């Protein structure tokens, strides 16, 4: 009884295996067929995309030819009755054209899957400084995905004012702020690194480098009293201060030579970059050449 | 050295894990190199602590020194607190922010001291243009409680400040006032954003992505970074099923649903493919980076 059962089970198992084999080979031939069909469909798609690419290339060349003449008169994007897709494409074209035109002013960009990533390279006095990027998603509304702009630069304010209506103005304004910040930072860094000998205390600065406070001597190690300078940069798009106060403590108010020096220093700080002023201090030693005040 | 100061320093040092002790003591920079060299850090912790307290006594540590040590400990153990985010704003047409750290510290301290008389305020600046503020609260008649301080991390020349939520609620308005006035802002609001991870909060609030342009892969959305966040939904439970205990109540059940994960947004993304949730996911669960909120209240329509 057990023997018949066992061989019966063996036959069943064998039948099962054969069944699986057949269904597997069915499956495989089915898969092969569907893959072949997919391949055919993809081939057609490739042809279609290639044609589209060639058409777009032709359009881009066309556009480039007229970019220079148009750039000065670029108007804010007009959202007339074009459908959304066309409006977005137009925005993308606009950004590309702007980047083309501004390449040499430190603004460049590359296309991304969702829009464009803009890179702003800052410079001051011919020195290439830090670069910052802004990742824009071309959607409705236009959106900043993420960025490497320092947190204390008013990016949100600038975006709120210009991003939706005038990308060009947005990029230009941001460039201004970043270049000015870079320039101020450069001056403060140079002062700290190159002219530490003339400073009699640490340089007080804030993140935007728009308030600098320091004390300095023209003759380090000498007997003269130190000057105290306080530079305010109320214009965040400028690299020169808007307000300068220089005081000289411990000196008789009636001393005219100190008063003259003090006043001339104030003028210098207002008109020349910080590190250049100190370079002139270092060059002239005790005697300040009045001809520098131009 | 005051007994309460000694006790506070002792308890602070006891909290510090042995492997961090020398790093934190060096950052504190209160005990000299020579003094630290006399300590045998391989002893039992209690003996090490006793020796350190003795050295602090020699140097006459004050409550400010102790407070500074506490700040440094908290900087190393940020995740022990839950952090709230406050956003300040200026009035229209206000002047450019000429932030002066000295002025800020003086102003902040004065405002609190004038209101409370007994309060310990300490500051520690970091390299990223942030200042850590520690406030131990007292009242007109009681000394400050050093064991329940509030910590604030303020990024100067930005509108944002992060505060540890463990504070006594009645001091919130005063803290807000002090921050706003000292930083020359007009208004302050609490954002619906809260987490143990300061870095995650910073990433959302500042939308920053610190990679160089060349290697920047802009197709990687912010969502894919591990944010270690929780999502909190306050809502009412309503069931369409009959015979459900929760649905048979007269008033719908109010509840707080908390989604928590070290990689929360990743986890949520996998819900739909796993068949657990319908696609597309509710925008409540995916809008965190865009709306900068992770605490939602769902009301009846």
UniProtKB/TrEMBL annotation, chain A:
<dbReference type="GO" id="GO:0000776">
    <property type="term" value="C:kinetochore"/>
</dbReference>
<keyword id="KW-0539">Nucleus</keyword>
<dbReference type="Pfam" id="PF09496">
    <property type="entry name" value="CENP-O"/>
</dbReference>
<dbReference type="GO" id="GO:0005634">
    <property type="term" value="C:nucleus"/>
</dbReference>
<protein>
    <recommendedName>
        <fullName>Centromere protein O</fullName>
    </recommendedName>
</protein>
<keyword id="KW-0158">Chromosome</keyword>
<comment type="similarity">
    <text>Belongs to the CENP-O/MCM21 family.</text>
</comment>
<keyword id="KW-0137">Centromere</keyword>
<dbReference type="InterPro" id="IPR018464">
    <property type="entry name" value="CENP-O"/>
</dbReference>
From TrEMBL, chain B:
<dbReference type="InterPro" id="IPR052011">
    <property type="entry name" value="CENP-NAC/CAD_complex"/>
</dbReference>
<keyword id="KW-0137">Centromere</keyword>
<dbReference type="InterPro" id="IPR007902">
    <property type="entry name" value="Chl4/mis15/CENP-N"/>
</dbReference>
<dbReference type="Pfam" id="PF05238">
    <property type="entry name" value="CENP-N"/>
</dbReference>
<dbReference type="GO" id="GO:0007059">
    <property type="term" value="P:chromosome segregation"/>
</dbReference>
<keyword id="KW-0158">Chromosome</keyword>
<keyword id="KW-0539">Nucleus</keyword>
<comment type="similarity">
    <text>Belongs to the CENP-N/CHL4 family.</text>
</comment>
<protein>
    <submittedName>
        <fullName>Centromere protein N</fullName>
    </submittedName>
</protein>
<dbReference type="GO" id="GO:0034080">
    <property type="term" value="P:CENP-A containing chromatin assembly"/>
</dbReference>
<dbReference type="GO" id="GO:0005634">
    <property type="term" value="C:nucleus"/>
</dbReference>
<dbReference type="GO" id="GO:0000775">
    <property type="term" value="C:chromosome, centromeric region"/>
</dbReference>
């Amino acid at each position: 009884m057990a023997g018949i059962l066992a061989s019966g089970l063996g036959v069943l198992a064998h039948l099962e295996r054969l069944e699986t084999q057949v269904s597997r080979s069915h499956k495989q031939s089915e898969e092969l067929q569907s893959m072949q069909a997919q391949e055919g469909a993809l081939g057609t798609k490739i042809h279609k995309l290639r044609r589209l690419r060639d058409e777009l290339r032709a359009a881009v060349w066309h556009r480039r030819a007229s970019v220079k003449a148009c750039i000065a008169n670029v108007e804010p994007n007009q959202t007339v009755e074009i459908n959304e897709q066309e409006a977005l494409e137009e925005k993308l074209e606009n950004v590309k054209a702007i980047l083309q035109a501004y390449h040499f002013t430190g603004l460049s960009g590359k296309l991304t899957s969702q829009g464009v990533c803009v890179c702003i390279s800052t410079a001051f006095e011919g020195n290439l400084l830090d670069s910052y990027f802004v990742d824009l998603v071309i959607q409705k509304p236009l959106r900043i995905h993420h960025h490497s702009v320092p947190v204390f630069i008013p990016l949100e304010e600038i975006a709120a004012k210009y991003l939706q209506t005038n990308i060009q103005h947005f990029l230009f304004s941001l460039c201004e702020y970043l270049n000015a910040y870079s320039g101020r930072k450069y001056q403060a860094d140079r002062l700290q690194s190159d002219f530490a000998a003339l400073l009699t205390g640490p340089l007080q600065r804030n993140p935007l480098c728009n308030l600098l406070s320091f004390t300095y001597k023209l003759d380090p190690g000498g007997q003269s009293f130190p000057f105290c300078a306080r530079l305010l940069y109320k214009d965040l798009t400028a690299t020169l201060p808007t307000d300068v106060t220089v005081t000289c403590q411990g000196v008789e108010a009636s001393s005219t030579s100190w008063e003259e020096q003090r006043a001339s220093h104030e003028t210098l700080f207002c008109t020349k970059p910080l590190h250049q002023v100190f370079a002139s201090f270092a060059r002239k030693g005790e005697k300040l050449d009045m001809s520098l005040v131009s | 050295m005051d007994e309460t100061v000694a006790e506070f320093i002792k308890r602070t040092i006891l909290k510090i894990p042995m492997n961090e002790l020398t790093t934190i003591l060096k950052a504190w920079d209160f005990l000299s190199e020579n003094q630290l060299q006399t300590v045998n850090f391989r002893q039992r912790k209690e003996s090490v602590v006793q020796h350190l307290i003795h050295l602090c006594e020699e140097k006459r540590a004050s409550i400010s020194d102790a407070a500074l040590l506490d700040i440094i400990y908290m900087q190393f153990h940020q995740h022990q607190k839950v952090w709230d985010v406050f956003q300040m704003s200026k009035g229209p047409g206000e002047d450019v922010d000429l932030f002066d750290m000295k002025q800020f510290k003086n102003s902040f301290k004065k405002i609190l001291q004038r209101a409370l008389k007994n309060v310990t305020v300490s500051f520690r600046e970091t390299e990223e243009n942030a200042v850590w503020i520690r406030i131990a609260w007292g009242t007109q008649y009681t000394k400050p409680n050093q064991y329940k301080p509030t910590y604030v991390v303020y990024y100067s020349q930005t509108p944002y400040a992060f505060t540890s939520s463990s504070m006594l609620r009645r001091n919130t308005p005063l803290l807000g006032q002090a921050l706003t006035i000292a930083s020359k802002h007009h208004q302050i609001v609490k954002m619906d954003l809260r987490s143990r991870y300061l870095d995650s909060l910073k990433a959302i609030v500042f939308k920053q992505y610190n990679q160089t342009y060349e290697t920047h892969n802009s197709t990687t959305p912010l969502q894919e970074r591990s944010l270690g966040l929780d999502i909190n939904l306050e809502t009412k439970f309503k069931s369409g099923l009959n015979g459900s205990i929760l649905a048979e109540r007269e008033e719908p059940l109010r509840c707080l649903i908390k989604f928590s994960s070290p990689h929360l947004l990743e986890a949520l993304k996998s819900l739909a493919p796993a068949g657990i949730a319908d696609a597309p996911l509710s925008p409540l669960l995916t809008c965190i980076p865009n709306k900068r909120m992770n605490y939602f209240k769902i009301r009846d329509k």
